[in-house]
Design goal:
The protein is an alpha+beta fold. Mean pLDDT is 76; it is low at 17-25. It has helices at 13-20, 28-88, 91-124, 162-168; strands at 169-171, 177-179, 196-201, 204-210, 216-220, 228-229, 240-250, 256-266, 273-275, 278-279, 285-287, 293-296, 301-306. Helix content is 35%, strand content 21%. The longest helix has 61 residues, at 28-88. The strands form three sheets. The chain has a six-stranded antiparallel sheet with strand order 4-3-13-12-9-10, with no helix packed on it. The protein has four helices and 13 strands. The radius of gyration is 64 Å and the shape is rod-shaped.
Length: 311
């Protein structure tokens, strides 16, 4: 009798089916049913696997999209940073340019101060005796000779005006002095004609002045220095001067000869000098002719100029 090798408690498929169906044979319909069940379970298992796989693929796509977005954002940030850097970079060259311009502006002043220091040191150092002085060496022509430093403390020999003021000063009896505003020119000459001034106040002649005895006549309100006194308050202390000068003239044949003529000069008076009702320029000689009418300041007095030969 053959030995039963199947484990105890376990039955084969045919035994199980025969047992369930009342010890009948396992029919074809049952086998087809079992095969359909297995196919459904396999199909279900495949579908679950496909769902799991598609879910996994969705997750992977989402992660790839997130990584792509992150990578696309990085270049934008780097571009923004580079743009900010490029915007900030031009300020550095501008600062360097400003620094260089300041240095160029300060260089001449530094050189000047250095030259002054060197010149002061040279002037302060004592001179060497001629026996100790080093022998002169020939200098190369390639070196350009620098200009000598300018010494600002040089003596000034220009006219200060003090000597002229001392010469023009007129000392008075009370110890004070008055400085004259006018000096006679080199061509001053005493006139050869008898020039006179007829003084009129309105239609009445009040005075006759002879102005041929000297070369110049100072007119003004200062009694101590003037030759012709004018007491009107609108006139200056030293108002004007009538000056006789020797001038050269050409005759009808072209020959030049000297002739003495009267001139008047206004000494920068407050209310000016008028000749024939016209104000004359200040500090310039104005030629006078016979018959001219002179007025000083706002005074109503008229000074008519005539000479002996005038008709």
């Amino acid at each position: 009798m053959p030995r039963d090798t199947s484990p105890r408690g376990f039955r084969t498929r045919e035994e199980d089916c025969s047992g369930r169906r009342g010890k009948k044979d396992y029919s074809r319909t049952d086998r087809a049913h079992d095969n359909g069940y297995e196919r459904d379970s396999d199909r279900r298992r495949d579908k679950d696997g496909d769902d799991r796989r598609s879910r996994h693929n969705d997750y992977r796509r989402r992660d790839d999209r997130r990584d792509r977005d992150r990578d696309s954002r990085r270049p934008n940030r780097e571009r923004d940073r580079e743009g900010r850097d490029d915007h900030d970079r031009p300020s550095r060259p501008n600062r360097e340019r400003d620094r260089e311009s300041r240095d160029d502006h300060d260089r001449p002043s530094r050189r000047r101060s250095r030259d002054l220091v060197v010149s002061s040191r040279r002037s302060a150092s004592p001179k060497r005796p001629s026996s100790i002085q080093p022998s002169a060496r020939p200098r190369s022509s390639s070196r350009s000779k620098s200009p000598p430093p300018v010494d600002k403390a040089k003596p000034n020999f220009a006219n200060s005006g003090l000597l002229a003021a001392e010469t023009n000063a007129v000392k008075l009896t009370d110890g004070t002095s008055t400085i004259l505003k006018y000096n006679e020119p080199p061509e001053a000459r005493k006139p050869t004609l008898g020039w006179r001034l007829y003084v009129f106040k309105g239609s009445e002649q009040v005075e006759l002045l002879h102005i041929h005895r000297q070369s110049a006549y100072l007119i003004g309100r200062d009694r101590t220095v003037t030759d012709i006194l004018i007491e009107h308050p609108s006139c200056s202390k030293q108002h004007a001067v009538i000056q006789h000068r020797q001038v050269m003239e050409k005759d009808e044949f072209g020959a030049s000869k000297s002739k003495n003529k009267p001139f008047i000069i206004d000494l920068e008076s407050t209310n000016s000098t008028h000749v024939n009702d016209e104000a004359i320029p200040t500090s310039r000689f104005y030629e006078l002719k016979a018959g001219d009418v002179i007025k000083f300041g706002l005074s109503n007095r008229e000074y008519v100029l005539l000479h002996d030969d005038a008709t």
